[in-house]
Design a protein that fits this description.
Layout lengths: L1 E9 L5 H9 L7 H6 L6 E8 L5 E8 L7 H8 L4 E7 L6 H12 L5 E6 L6 H15 L11 E3 L8 H13 L11 E3 L2 E5 L3 E7 L4 E3 L3 E5 L3 E10 L2 E3 L1 E3 L3 E7 L11 E3 L7 E10 L6 E2 L2 E7 L2 E8 L5 E2 L4 E12 L6 E6 L5 E9 L9 H13 L1 H9 L4 E2 H8 L3 H9 L4 E4 L2 E4 H21 L6 E2 H6 L6 H13 L4 E3 L2 E3 L9 H17 L6 H6 L5 H13 L3 E5 L2 E4 H15 L4 E3 H8 L3 H13 L3 E4 L2 E4 L1
Parallel strand pairs: 1-3, 1-4, 4-5, 5-6
Antiparallel strand pairs: 2-3, 7-16, 8-9, 9-15, 10-14, 11-12, 11-16, 12-13, 12-15, 17-22, 17-24, 18-21, 19-20, 19-23, 20-22, 23-24, 25-27, 26-27, 28-30, 29-30, 31-32, 33-35, 34-35
Length: 628
């Protein structure tokens, strides 16, 4: 069964709601005030099933929007998720102000399919109807509703004339509408919140992507609250799941109606985050005034609405009818994804002036020149995944980050990246191959510089080398380093990194003496010998012996904790573990207890405790230590 969302658009009292009722049998005006005043104030919903062009069932969900200028903000809350539009124009009034505004809104939201419906055709004669048709043809010429590709159908909703023609046109156009991607991560902008007795909290909306099943956990944005789906209805019927493109009602557990409102979004949990800053491509209508840098506007996207400040990179204003990159600073956090279409309305008086598309929902802090960043945004609009990975450089992009910025599951991201020969995957990160090559050279250069500056050391510690590249993920750093080692461009000796043939070259007796010193301290544990005793048993002279000790200290194989006490690193690491185990039993320890724990005398206990204080393993309080 194919599902298509159809929205109405048009001036007040041009018969949108009556038309929907004639098509579906459902009165979309649900509010008492709407029935009393005879106008649509808020969004209304209806549904219809027709035989599809391919023999399957076509499920149409209708979103009926208000036409009065005072309620355009409500109209915007409903029109964002539609697949096609019925532009409703009364034959006895022709094109009116909200006809134009609603039409421009649909264009700005990139609605690509629709039908122009001339309602109340029974109230005018044939000649007048033909004049109105010609006016409408001229009005929509060159747009997605151009009469060369989209029909103009006269109807009488009261008498039923033209309704069957309209249904046939709906079937024909719906056949060309691609199905929304139900394999993407789920996202449902909330347009209604209410309570049903016996069931509790219910929200409705158009599921714009993904699939939602009963008992699924979803995350509510912008609050990040987790909720559970107890029951699902699709187009008014109970269902086990809802898929992208369907009008969906969700009965939610763990949340009250007071915690929900129109403008919130339900989405797959643990992936997304709301934002207050977005990079966009922004277009102004021909009828708009020029927009200056730092202008404030009303921002609408799907069902959300907030105030935004427009920052224009490198220019002072956007002229009417022009398009430019911009950054919008939102007054409230909103859940948005690249590709989302939005509308902006003038701050005062409130009229529609433009719209555009979100390019980045997590803009990086701008460190480039305006021209460079504009090139990046241009690249994002053309090849989103490649441009973002290229911009990330050696930092790469985690699959989870790509998912949060695109709405695509990690498996889809992997598949898309695999099709791009410029990109490599390292663990859970995607990175440009040229960035990997550059990082390899930077690693080699860093080790080479270390050798030149430290001629008395074997090599650079892996920890010190890692610190040179703080923005590079550990997973990426480790694998790139490993690649250089396999290529024999670098060598690993324990925790040391060196260039083959570089570093301190020891004679046989010096290498043997180094092993003797290391073994003496490693085997002693915390009851270390005096250094002079160890050196006395070596085959090398005192000068060379002292040089070896210096190397071991610089390489942090031996650690000096007082003037005359040195310990092997493994012994001190073991001591840290024992202190952590002790903390599970008691958070405090005194000198006597420490001596019992370690088996050392006071000569060693006091310096060791002072060392632990310096390392923030313990903190002294009176005669005791608190284990941190």
């Amino acid at each position: 069964m194919k599902s298509v969302i159809v929205g109405t658009a048009g001036h007040i009292d041009h018969g949108k709601t009556v038309l929907v009722k004639a098509l579906t049998g459902i009165d979309a005006d649900r509010l008492e005030e709407e029935k009393r005043r005879g106008i649509t104030i808020d969004l209304g919903f209806a549904h219809l099933e027709l035989p599809g062009a391919d023999g399957d069932t076509l499920r149409l969900g209708f979103v009926d929007v208000p036409g009065h200028e005072r309620f355009v903000r409500n109209m915007l809350a409903g029109v964002g998720g539609i697949d096609m539009v019925l532009l409703v124009i009364a034959a006895d009034e022709s094109i009116k102000p909200q006809t134009r505004e609603h039409f421009e809104i649909c264009r700005l939201l990139s609605v690509r399919r629709g039908i122009t419906v001339l309602t109340k055709s029974d109230l005018v004669d044939r000649e007048t109807l033909e004049v109105v048709r010609l006016e409408v043809e001229d009005f929509v010429r060159g747009s997605f509703l151009d009469s060369s590709q989209s029909p103009i159908i006269p109807v009488s909703s009261i008498r039923g004339a033209g309704i069957e023609d309209l249904k046939r046109a709906l079937i024909s156009i719906a056949a060309d509408i691609p199905a929304r991607d139900s394999t993407n991560l789920a996202r449902l902008p909330v347009d209604r919140v209410f309570t049903i007795k016996g069931f509790g909290t219910v929200v409705t909306g158009t599921l714009v992507s993904g699939t939602v099943r009963k008992e699924d956990e979803l995350e509510l944005f912008p609050s990040a609250q987790r909720v559970r789906v107890r029951r699902i209805e699709v187009h008014g019927k109970p269902a086990d799941q809802a898929v992208a493109g369907e009008r969906t009602a969700l009965n939610l557990a763990s949340v009250s109606t007071e915690e929900l409102s129109r403008g919130m979004t339900l989405a797959s949990p643990g992936i997304f985050h709301p934002t207050t800053r977005i990079d966009v491509e922004l277009s102004l209508l021909e009828s708009a005034k020029p927009m200056k840098d730092r202008a404030r506007v009303h921002f609408h996207c799907y069902t959300s609405e907030t105030i935004a400040t427009v920052t224009l990179p490198g220019i002072q204003q956007i002229a009417a009818g022009d398009t430019s990159f911009a950054q919008l600073h939102l007054a409230q956090p909103v859940f948005l994804l690249p590709g989302d279409r939005f509308i902006i309305r003038q701050f005062s008086p409130v009229v529609t002036i433009g719209g555009g598309v979100v390019l980045e929902n997590s803009p990086p802090l701008r460190t480039q020149k305006v021209a460079e960043y504009s090139e990046f945004l241009k690249a994002v609009s053309q090849s989103p995944l490649l441009a973002r990975i290229e911009f990330a450089g050696a930092r790469g992009l985690a699959l989870a980050e790509v998912a949060s910025r695109t709405g695509r599951p990690p498996e889809q991201v992997k598949k898309a990246a695999a099709a791009l020969p410029q990109i490599a995957q390292i663990g859970e990160f995607l990175i440009l191959k040229t960035a990997i090559a550059a990082l390899e050279e930077e690693l080699l250069s860093a080790v080479d510089a270390f050798h030149k500056q430290n001629r008395l050391l074997h090599g650079m510690s892996k920890e010190a080398l890692r610190a040179r590249f703080p923005r590079v993920p550990l997973e990426v750093f480790s694998q790139v380093l490993e690649m250089r080692v396999k290529e024999k461009k670098l060598e690993l000796a324990g925790d040391l990194v060196k260039i083959p043939g570089r570093g301190v070259v020891m004679k046989d007796e010096e290498a043997e003496s180094q092993k003797t010193i290391e073994h003496a301290f490693a085997s002693a544990g915390l009851k270390v010998p005096a250094m002079k005793e160890v050196l006395a048993g070596l085959k090398v002279d005192r000068t060379r012996a002292q040089r070896i000790v210096t190397l071991l200290l610089r390489e942090k194989v031996l650690i000096k904790i007082s003037d005359d006490l040195l310990f092997h690193k493994d012994a001190l690491n073991e001591l840290r573990k024992r202190m952590a185990e002790r903390k599970t039993k008691a958070a405090r320890i005194d000198v006597a207890q420490f001596k019992d724990l370690t088996g050392v005398t006071r000569k060693y206990a006091i310096p060791l405790l002072e060392y632990l204080d310096r390392e923030h393993v313990t903190r002294r309080q009176g005669d005791e230590r608190v284990i941190l």
